[in-house]
Amino acid sequence: MEADDAALRVESDRDIDGDWSRLQQAFETFFPNAVKRGGSDEGGAGVEIRGLEPSGK
Questions:
Q1: Which pTM value belongs to this model?
Q2: How far is CA 30 from the centre of its chain?
Q3: Residues 54/14, Cβ–Cβ less than 8 Å
Q4: For the segment 25-35, what is each residue's pLDDT rounded down to a tens digit?
Q5: What is the 3-state secondary structure of the chain?
């Protein structure tokens, strides 16, 4: 996928805990949708995912 006005920025060093195949599928959906629906009129594309505080498993 090419998108000149899209970028991936990671601002965390936290790990993601989950089923890797489902996480991969989710990210493969998030990013193209962000690029498709975002645009230069809106400041480019972006996906923001925020973590929750650990629940003390």
A1: 0.54
A2: 6
A3: no
A4: 988 888 888 87
A5: CCCCCECCCCCCCCCCCCCHHHHHHHHHHHHHHHHHHCEHHHCEECCCCCCCCCCCC
